Amino acid sequence: MSDTFPGTFPFAGSSYRGPAPQYAQLREDEPVVRVPTAGGVDAWLVTRYEDVRSLSADPRLSRARACGEGAPRVGGTMHTTPEMIISLDAGEHSRLRKLVAGAFTLRKVELMRDRVQQVCDELLDEMAAKGGPIDLVEQLAVPLPLTVIGELLGVPSQDLRTFEKWARAFATVDDRAGGEASLEGLAKLNEYIVGLVADKRANPTDDMLSELVAARDEGDRLSEQELVTFGFTLIGAGFDTTANQLANSVLALVTGGGAEWKRLAEDPSRIPAAVEELLRHVNLFATDTSGFPRIATEDIEVGGTTIPAGAPVLLSLASANRDAAVFPDPDRMDLERSPNPHISFGHGLHHCLGKHLGRMELVVAIEGLVRRFPDLRLAIDESELPWHTGEINHTLTSLPVTWGD
């Protein structure tokens, strides 16, 4: 086995339909391999399901080390700062996570279902009143999760679109421009949340951000910068991934003649299982990884290969979700796949805090769409769809759809 793969990460050929073709070869021949990256440093790329899942929960891989001063810059990954929850290791991560984890339990999320349904129905009413063609990204995919997370955290409704602009800029990972867009987005988000925190401190309301301010001021469990950073991290993570997953999932369902969409319209009871398969099959990550490298704190042996201490490590969730050892016929979208132990929400310490909320929003949105628009279809050819490049996710700029005659 060679220790360097001939290619630069992130590999070309990744799309919402699946990871770059190199991953299939790597899973077969070199599941743990050293690759050069667009940032100019080598990283170890892990591609098989069991290895990715195991290492996602391995405390010998440090996120904090990957975000600290002097850490190697792995190209194609997102800018993060040391105080962000996604940048922390066990003790500090748990301290922050437990402050908000209760709001995202399955029981609490189910209590939000009626409100999510109401927001979705209102957006679908507007969509029906306008008539096709409409842009599904603008009409539903963005405003649904943005409204929900905004209300949960207490962001004024008139500020949501401004916040969306800077959160999406923050998610930009285009290293060719030196990351200026991401850094500008980070600065603007920080500036906005500083003002919002001041307002919540003066005028607390019944929302999560007010609770975090109280945790800062009364229990001193957060530093001021942690409080500000936690605020924009939760809002950004709470809508962008769900918005992109919803748009990409609808696209996957209505292409190829729309047979899968029609089947769901005929039997909506299949939608929860379909959402799980869409989470597995539709490749959300533009780099085929979660976008967040880790650093090995000691030598780690994985499948006969040793990752040396100090090396950056990339875990490919998209590749893991296409591993034939776990998912029979993995490149086929099977909306009735069972079992379906995908790891699209990650695993271990950094698994997605909002996974229950994201799942529920996807189910509610797709159920509403197939009920109201059983003949939904693309309004333009798929080859004409505009994709926003340079983001951590595969992001549709717009998704023109229509229905009826």
CATH fourth-tier homologous superfamily? Cytochrome P450
Give the H and E element order.
HEEHEHHHHEHHHHHHHHEEEEHHEEEE
Major pleated sheet = 5 strands, mixed
Q: How big a fraction of the residues is strand?
A: 5-15%
CATH class: Mainly Alpha
Shape: globular
Low-confidence stretches: none
In CATH, the topology is named Cytochrome p450
State mean pLDDT (0 to 100 scale).
Answer: 88
Work out the radius of gyration: 21 Å
Gap between N and C termini, in Å? 58 Å
| Annotated CATH architecture | Orthogonal Bundle
For the secondary structure, the number of strands is 12
Identify the strand order in the major beta sheet: 1-2-8-5-3
Brief description of this entry?
Pfam families: p450. With 405 residues, the protein is α+β, with helices and mostly antiparallel strands.
Task: Walk me through the structure.
- The structure is a single chain.
- This protein starts with 21 loop residues before the first helix and ends with a strand.
- The protein has a single domain (22-402), classed as Cytochrome p450 (Orthogonal Bundle).
- The protein has helices at residues 22-29, 49-56, 63-67, 90-100, 106-111, 113-130, 136-141, 143-153, 160-170, 180-202, 208-218, 224-254, 259-266, 271-281, 317-320, 355-372; strands spanning 32-36, 42-46, 61-62, 134-135, 294-296, 300-302, 305-307, 312-315, 377-378, 387-388, 395-396, 400-402.
- The protein has a 5-stranded mixed beta sheet with strand order 1-2-8-5-3. A 3-stranded antiparallel beta sheet has the order 4-12-9. It has a two-stranded antiparallel ribbon with strand order 6-7.
- 47% of the residues are buried.
- With 405 residues, it is an alpha+beta fold.
- The protein is built from 16 helices and 12 strands.
